[in-house]
Design brief:
Strand order of the largest sheet: 1-4
Shape: flat
Number of helices: 3
Distance between the termini: 24 Å
Radius of gyration: 17 Å
Strand content: 5-15%
Order of helices and strands: EHEEEEEHH
Structural class: alpha+beta
């Protein structure tokens, strides 16, 4: 990865989705089963639903392949734009109509 550190904090719910549900303090509310009832907390999208090396494949020699994460990263910007448009339509009470380009992207 020529000078760049390989990604390792992978989100199993992508931040591009989480960012669409921020509260007024730019955080996300969450609760875990091991918390007391009604002990809801707030954190940033960067710190929620994250796991170390979730998409990293570790080979027999200990080498790390982060190509899946890099592929997801390349898709994030166009996907975030598409999701934002869909949410705007749905939140306005309308039914989205997906064009062929959007369907192709979703199938990837």
């Amino acid at each position: 990865m020529s000078g760049k550190k390989a990604p390792h904090r992978h989100h199993y719910i992508p931040r591009m989705i989480l960012r669409n549900f921020l509260n007024d303090q730019k955080g996300l509310y969450f609760w875990r089963r091991d918390f007391p009832v009604r002990d809801v907390k707030s954190t940033t999208p960067e710190n929620l639903f994250v796991e170390e090396n979730l998409y990293t494949v570790i080979g027999e020699e200990g080498e790390r392949d982060v190509s899946a994460e890099l592929g997801f990263a390349r898709m994030e910007r166009p996907a975030a734009h598409m999701i934002r448009q869909l949410l705007d339509i749905v939140r306005a009470g309308k039914t989205p109509r997906l064009d062929e380009t959007t369907w192709e992207f979703l199938q990837r």
